[in-house]
Design brief:
The protein is mostly beta strands and 167 residues long. The protein contains two helices and 13 strands. The strands form three sheets. Strands 11-10-9-8-13-12 form a six-stranded mixed beta sheet, with no helix packed on it. Strands 5-6-2-1-7 form a five-stranded antiparallel beta sheet. A hairpin with a 4-residue loop joins β9 and β10. The longest helix is centred in the middle third of the chain and has 5 residues. It starts with a strand and ends in a 7-residue tail after the last strand.
Length: 167
């Protein structure tokens, strides 16, 4: 499983005093501060996080060692990570997106359909983006219990019962 999990991204500077616009990928946006210090994917930089206010499409935050707008501007687009072992354990039938990416996808008959490329959410439900050598394009599969009855993280496999004609 992935060593680091992306929990947020910096959308740019906010104001002139070194604050940043922070997009949180946690279930409750403000919880991102509880996972601090946050780090870059390569581990070259770490940041303490202090949330200052909610803003449209995110949070305003102060990051340790960032005190000017110019410094904040250089961080635009930077993704922020935490080690997987610092995230809380989830109840059964709940999964971190990072744990699902790369899992092989098989139908209820055992036929390999592909692998999970990404997980998307456009408002209604999570969608597994499946890609594979026999697919002409990626397939978006609703991540519901009816369509995805089994997720076996230990075996790195998902069993699906897709709607007729999807694959």
């Amino acid at each position: 499983m992935t060593e680091l999990v992306c929990v947020g991204a910096i959308a740019g500077a906010y104001g002139i005093r070194g604050e940043v616009r922070l997009k949180s990928f946690t279930a409750i946006a403000e919880d991102i501060a509880d996972y601090a210090p946050l780090q870059t994917e390569d581990g070259s930089k770490t940041f303490g996080v202090s949330l200052t206010r909610s803003i449209k499409n995110g949070l305003a935050a102060r990051l340790s060692s960032i005190s000017t707008k110019e410094q904040a501007d250089t961080l635009k687009g930077l993704r922020l990570y935490v080690p997987r072992n610092r995230l809380p354990d989830l109840p059964d039938d709940e999964y971190y997106y990072a744990d699902l990416v790369g899992l092989e996808v098989r139908d209820t008959g055992g036929t390999l359909l592909g692998c999970v490329k990404t997980i998307q959410n456009h408002g209604a439900t999570d969608l597994l983006e499946i890609h594979g050598p026999d697919l002409s394009a990626t397939v978006l599969l609703p991540f519901t219990h009816a369509v995805v009855p089994t997720v076996d993280l230990a075996s790195r496999r998902i069993v699906v019962d897709p709607p007729e004609g999807l694959f």
